[in-house]
Amino acid sequence: MVLPATTSWTRTTVRHRISDDELAARTARPAFGEVLTEHMVSARWSAERGWHDAEVLPYAPLTMDPAMVGLHYGQVVFEGMKAYRQPDGSIAAFRAVDHARRFQRSAARLAMPEPPVELFLSALTELVAADRRWVPSAESQSLYLRPILYAVDPCLALRPGAQYRLLILAMVTETFFGEGAPPVSVWAGSRYARAANGGTGEAKCAGNYAGGFVAQVEAAEHGCQQVVWLDAAEHRWVEEMGGMNIFLCYGDQLVTPPLSGTLLPGITRASVLTLAPELGLTVVERKVSLEEWQAACRDGSLTEAFACGTAAVITSIGRLVTESDTDTIGDGNPGPVANRLRATLTGLQRGLAADPHGWRQQLAGPDS
Ligand code: PLP
Ligand code: COI
């Protein structure tokens, strides 16, 4: 049974909501990942029943079978998207349908059922209704929404699950690196690879991130905040970062690696590809080697580089570090191209500019 477009939800809210003072204290400086809201949504899927048991619940630890497939074999996919308080008090998510579709593609890649777009949107609407007071209005903040789908069958047989749970959590956040953070330093090592042809690189599956942590630790040992992933075959071609896509700026020309199947098709990346020409910039999707990046730092042709993603928004890259070299990008400071794109993108997300592409998805109306 597929849930109808107007999914019916069972709603259980927290018995005692936290006070306004407590809410203000918790959300004053919300580091990424730390300030979760009071509710979550849940739905289940089984081969016999399809999607069912759609519920809004108080945020709480889960009970799980220790033999759960998702836990043992990593059959887990997730999404990351944001909702923003609009000037009239309403709440809009950015490109929610695109996130829903990527969630479906990630699920399909891991042999999981694809959550219907209507269920995804209805779940977001329910969560935002339950946690409306958590949606911040501060310019630097947003509500980060984290859908996750995982296999729950209590069975160690090595095969895809037949029972799944979908959860959506929400948290209040500043940008990933903190508001007004200086440009990041990035580490391009040759020891590890994130994704190979035919692998899961273009899916947002949990295992991709677990596999990257060791390189993240290596990056930190070299004084860097992020890893630049190079292709697995030659360790030569720039692909993306741990949770962001990459753009290099040669003056007004933006270059980004093409979607080769091994990198995540970022929705912020797609937005930059649309917005940049509207700002008079040119964009090229082509392969970029690490040598090109280093040479362009040295001959001055590379004026800026930035990372982009839902959590990071648009974050300038100041330094590129490898086993043998450290290069500064431009003068090491945020550049005008990244600044313009960030202002344009966040203006759209926050409802401060017209939305010609229909990217804002209203989840809740103005305060009544
Ligand atoms: N690449 C990876 C590996 C990511 O985890 C993310 C974040 O979701 C991105 C790129 C950027 O994607 P998006 O702009 O859709 O957030
Ligand atoms: C995002 O930008 O939404 C991400 O998923 C990056 C990371 C926090 C996993």
Structure description:
With 368 residues, the chain is an alpha+beta fold. It has two domains: 9-174 and 359-364, D-amino Acid Aminotransferase, Chain A, domain 1 (2-Layer Sandwich); 184-334, D-amino Acid Aminotransferase, Chain A, domain 2, CATH 3.20.10. 24% of the residues lie in helices and 28% in strands. The protein contains nine helices and 19 strands. The strands form two sheets. Strands 1, 2, 3, 4, 5, 6, 7, 8, 9 and 19 form a ten-stranded mixed beta sheet that branches. Strands 10, 11, 12, 13, 14, 15, 16, 17 and 18 form a nine-stranded mixed beta sheet that branches. Strand 3 (39-46) and strand 4 (50-58) form a beta hairpin. The longest helix has 14 residues, at 96-109. Bound molecules: pyridoxal-5'-phosphate and 2-OXO-4-methylpentanoic acid. 2-OXO-4-methylpentanoic acid binds next to loops. Pyridoxal-5'-phosphate (PLP) binds at residues 80, 240, 243-245, 264, 266-269, 309-310.
- Number of domain modules: 2
| Biggest sheet record | 10 strands, mixed
What's the total number of strands? 19
Distance between the termini: 36 Å
Could you tell me which ligands this complex binds, including any ions or cofactors? pyridoxal-5'-phosphate, 2-OXO-4-methylpentanoic acid
The CATH C-level name of the largest domain is Alpha Beta
What is the second-level CATH architecture of the largest domain? 2-Layer Sandwich
Shape, per Cα inertia axes: globular
Average per-residue pLDDT, rounded, comes to 96
